[in-house]
């Protein structure tokens, strides 16, 4: 599009040059003719002004009449205006959409659908101090390893180099399976051969702060600190036959696994409407009786259909390992311990709206 505009502008300039040359030559010819007429007839009045090409009759001071063409000032003016318009409309210029730089939007809201690939190993100990069974929830409980779930996020940029992002990723699964081995979840034991219905939630809330050491019109480079929490919720229901009766029993636990990670990020404006955002973080820390290790990375691409709405697609990976050690709680017996290894890979596609 810009090359076409440049060609139009070049032709406008050439036309303007040629037009000025032709009009100058014609004006010189007219001046020479009038000088000759004045020399012959001693004096001539002002030529009438009119549309070029309309011959008019003028009377010289000696009484002789002659036909002349009015000066072509209007024709030249119209041609010059046409060339000026061609130059004005043909010149490359930044449109309103191209001038919006979404690296520095004050607020952004996004909603996405995330296709998750999940892998989970979990152990929930009993309150009596007994260890639970190390479970692969996909193999032992029949959980699907892929799931389409919603994701929401909100970004706020309080300054040119600062950004806060708050978000929530849903991750909830359920399954039904006949147990192939005896397992213990908390204080409940489920025998092999029992049909169990299991629900397993691993929702993740996250808050990320980013500070850019480099912040210009095309890129941002800096550090990011991510804080979050996984809401682990395991529930297992089973039916067992005792004689002629059927007995239902349930086991499971819910607990929160805090996470934190520190790393680097970049945001790049690769085109008028295209943006790329790589992000990588890692941290291993122990707080009280909780030990956590987090590795996470992502690559996000955004394309803005207009200054008010865009689409985004991204890939990401997250690996979390959390150990919760049991401890005595005020003399009322040991609290439960747990161990979780959780991995999540995702591809997401959604909509982003600057506010």
Strand share of the residues? Answer: over 45%
The total beta strand count reads 16
What would you call the shape?
Answer: elongated
Structural class: alpha+beta
The main β sheet shows up as: 10 strands, antiparallel, barrel
Rg estimate, integer Å = 40 Å
Q: Span between N and C termini?
A: 30 Å
Order of strands, main sheet, comes to 3-5-6-10-11-12-13-14-15-16
Mean of residue pLDDT values: 77
Please give the count of helices. 4
**Uncertain ranges:** 1-17, 27-53, 73-94, 330-334
Tell me the helix content: 10-25%
| SSE ordering | HEEHHEEHEEEEEEEEEEEE
Give a brief description.
With 355 residues, this protein is α+β, with helices and mostly antiparallel strands. The protein is built from four helices and 16 strands.
Per-chain topology:
Elements: H1 2-41, E1 56-59, E2 65-68, H2 73-90, H3 96-99, E3 107-124, E4 135-136, H4 137-140, E5 146-159, E6 162-169, E7 172-178, E8 183-185, E9 188-190, E10 195-215, E11 219-242, E12 245-269, E13 274-287, E14 290-306, E15 309-324, E16 338-354
Antiparallel strand pairs: 1-2, 3-4, 3-5, 3-16, 5-6, 6-10, 7-10, 8-9, 10-11, 11-12, 12-13, 13-14, 14-15, 15-16
Helix pairs in contact: 1-2
What does this structure look like?
The chain has 355 residues and is α+β, with helices and mostly antiparallel strands. The protein has helices at residues 2-41, 73-90, 96-99, 137-140, and strands at 56-59, 65-68, 107-124, 135-136, 146-159, 162-169, 172-178, 183-185, 188-190, 195-215, 219-242, 245-269, 274-287, 290-306, 309-324, 338-354. It has a ten-stranded antiparallel beta barrel. It has a two-stranded antiparallel sheet with strand order 1-2. Helix 1 packs antiparallel against helix 2. The protein is elongated, with a radius of gyration of 40 Å. It starts with a helix and ends with a strand.
